[in-house]
Amino acid sequence: MSDPGNNAGSADRSLGQLVAAATAEMSALVHDEIALAKAEVRQDVKRGVTGSVAFIIAGVLFLFAIPVLSFGAAYWIHTSGLGLAWCFGIVGLAFIVLGALLALFAVAKFKKVKPPEKSIASARQTAAVLQGVKPHPRPAVPAGESRPEVTGSTLTHKALEKSPVQDKASAVARSST
């Protein structure tokens, strides 16, 4: 980006021109920051996609390995002298037993899942508190005066105390604080 102080005749520029230049520089800075953020996100997405593809390929290779290892286990059992059919049956039953154990483990874990009781109780408590809340009454402002811009400060309280025109609601609001 260019330095606005190095432009010829920069001392002769009006305040409006200086503000316009500062606005243009700020806009360019924001656009450059957005472009940088987009570039960083693109790079991270590319890395994430590459990692995901590698993970998927690894998973497929592991799935291909299961039947090969199953055959190997069956043939290894066959070396003990059992018939080949019995060996494949034993490996198949081992997979069924492992699957059943994992299913029982999953069911036990799912039974322990409960709704977020603390969050629900907190939300109910907040809803109960908000149901009882009434909006703050606005103080009456005499004709010709402007309302103080800062709310909740001592400026507002002082303006209310000095105000000659007050309605009943503003007096109640002031006395409750």
Structural account:
This protein has 177 residues and is mainly α. It contains five helices and no strands. The chain is elongated.
Chain-wise SSE layout:
Elements: H1 15-78, H2 84-111, H3 117-131, H4 154-162, H5 168-176
Helix pairs in contact: 1-2
Give the total of beta strands.
0
User: Main β-sheet, in a few words?
Assistant: none
Helices and strands, in N-to-C order? HHHHH
Helix content class: over 70%
Discrete helix count: 5
What's the shape?
elongated
Strand content: under 5%
Q: Please report the distance between the alpha carbons of the first and last residues.
A: 54 Å
The radius of gyration is 37 Å
Stretches with pLDDT under 50, minimum 5 residues: 163-174
Mean pLDDT: 79
Write down the oligomeric state: single chain
Quick synopsis:
This protein is mainly alpha-helical and 177 residues long.
Keywords:
mainly alpha, 5 helices, 177 residues, 0% strand
